[in-house]
Amino acid sequence: MPARRRSSKPLGPAACEGDARKLEFIEDMTANADEVQLRVLSEILKRNAETEYLRRYGMGGSTERKIFKERVPVVAYEDLKSEIQRIADGDRSAIISAIPISEFLTSSGTSAGERKLMPTIDEELDRKQLLYSLLMPVMNVSVPGLDKGKALYFLFVKPWTTTPGGLPARPVLTSYYNSRHFRQHPADPYTNYTSPTAAILCPDAAQSMYAQMLCGLLHRLDVLRIGAVFASGLLRAIRFLRLNWRCLAEDIRAGFLSSNTIITDPSVHAAITARLCCPDPSLAEFIAGECAVEDWAGIITRIWPNTKYLDVIVTGAMAQYVPTLEYYSGGLPMACTMYASSECYFGLNLRPMCRPDEVSYTIMPNMGYFEFIPLSNDTNESSTPEVSSENIPVELSEVEEGREYELVVTTYAGLYRYRVGDILRVTGFHNAAPMFRFVRRKNVLLSIESDKTDEADLQAAVDRASKLIEPCGARVVEYTSQAYTKVIPGHYVIYWELMLRNGGEMPGAKILERCCHEMEGAFNSVYRQSRVDGSIGPLEIRVVRPGTFEELMDYAISRGASINQYKAPRCVTFQPIIELLDSRVISTHFSSKLPSWTPRVMHA
Ligand code: AMP
Question: Residue limits of the GH3 C-terminal domain (predicted)?
Fold first, then answer.
């Protein structure tokens, strides 16, 4: 199928010759999207012709797209578990990839409560680096002068583990920041970060944050852009400043880290000591003055007045943070630059200064081979279409503007026709390459940070916790939930309507508090890890008075819902419904303990 070429405004003008080459690369890839996709697929199939996986499906060494699509099935993680387990256990034969799997990237998507393990190979780092190298040339088209200052990016690694076969298993960014691609990147004006590499690579989140914030404050007038990967990360940094500005200002005033500093990692200590070279009482006074003001509206621009934009993802689950970021930044533009996952880095936003609700990502056809399962217009949140003759996956060059699709990827690292779980809508084209709005993650009900809780997880957690109220003669008759992000960190709110048996009594506060803890213990490891590292706050149960869910149904029916098909929503986002629920709350309870989470040897 030939790529349908469409005209679109060329990118540019480029800020410099180097940028011009990068923009040309984007134009070339997007203009020849289908040719590039054919080449990528053929490369993947050729090098992996002898793998057990492709042989199993009778590819017979073919590199033909048609044959590939006829013979190799569209799969989900559960279908690959045994292959992944064998690799994790140390089988080095060519199971899915001719090039040995170098490590596993632990996705925030989970399987049986644990992070999914995504195979990767070393050369994928080159592809990631290439995609990163396109971001600034695109940004420079809209925002000139970024080479004249610094970037304050809050970047973190997480502790990692190894599989029984000895392969590292760690989050994708932990892998990238530890790679030579990041650590030994030749200096250029656009990687002039305020954070020392030692601080970024420190696995202790509190030390890392303290060091990064301190350096950001020291260079406050040089900072031209502020970012984190996700909006939730940047808000966490602001909260950290709110809690720690006195210590930070004190260290700046003194010109050295105080004797009881939390910075104990020697390399972070050394990096900070090199920067904190002399006392700066006036900077300390300024920071203390700004932070002591009760109202933190516009705090970002008050402290870093030359910031031109925030570089954070505020699409998908992160859209809920836009108003809070607007508040703290006094309305700075928010640039969502990239769309990526543990499976594969997908693409970039060619108009990064657009409004958050207008963000579209252009999938770069050189990153992997992409297919798209068309969704019918009535596909709702809970249904996950099976691939059938009605919704055969289409090519990157075949998607239609206005339609929604589920993304399927074939990677250089040995995933073939793998369902990523993201639903995207085509909003237009750049040359022959479609641009996609991120619509939602399949089956995700609640998300505060990278956690993803689906309806089944929530049901299982409610079932488990409600056992604790049975002895009182009480049970949960209805429930729903909300990702509550008006405070930092956000937390899950679960609304419970209880019913008492004859002679039953309302469970006391202590029992309901234990229910909160029990629910947290039932959630997957990403949730529990985020609770332990403080990026999600304690779960809250709000008990509503009897009859509340009946009222909710009346409300939905008054707005056109069918009585026959009505089901209580398991998550609410619509403000009037939240207000209705909140107005019926009779008691609130919080988890008072952290759920258990420990890094463990990874099994598929
Ligand atoms: P992980 O596998 O944990 O790295 O998570 C990857 C997932 O995060 C993707 O499949 C998306 O669901 C989500 N994601 C990544 N980038 C974006 C983005 N720019 N906008 C919205 N969601 C994103």
Answer: 457-574
Closest CA to 487 of 213, 232, 292: 232
Ligand 1 atom at minimum distance from 108 CA:
3
The whole-number pLDDT of residue 12 equals 85
- Quote the Cα angle for 543-547-549, to 5°: 75
Asked whether 320 lines ligand 1 (CB < 6 A), one says no
pLDDT, tens only, 419-478? 999 999 999 999 999 999 999 999 899 999 999 999 989 999 999 999 999 999 999 999
Identify the helix (H) or strand (E) that includes residue 39.
helix 33-47
Mean pLDDT of all residues belonging to the chain? 94
From the CB of 172, is ligand 1 less than 6 Å away?
yes
CA distances from 120 to 36, 125, 171 (A): 21, 9, 12
Q: DSSP letter for 453, please.
A: B
Q: How many Å lie between the centroid of ligand 1 and the Cα of residue 199?
A: 24
CA–CA separation, 64 and 169 (whole Å): 33
Token pair 């925002």 is found at 143
Q: 3-state DSSP call for residue 388?
A: coil
Q: Cα 47 vs. chain centroid, distance in angstroms?
A: 31
Count other C-beta atoms under 10 Å from residue 289's C-beta: 11
HEC letters along 59-80? CCCCCCHHHHHHHCCCECHHHH
Pairwise CA distance, residues 310 & 152, whole Å: 10
Task: Measure 486 CA to ligand 1 centroid, in angstroms.
Answer: 22
pLDDT in tens, 204-254: 999 999 999 999 999 999 999 999 999 999 999 999 999 999 999 999 999
pLDDT digits (tens, 9 = 90+) for 255-304: 999 999 999 999 999 999 999 989 999 999 999 999 999 999 999 999 99
> What distance in angstroms lies between residue 53's CA and the mean position of ligand 1's atoms?
27
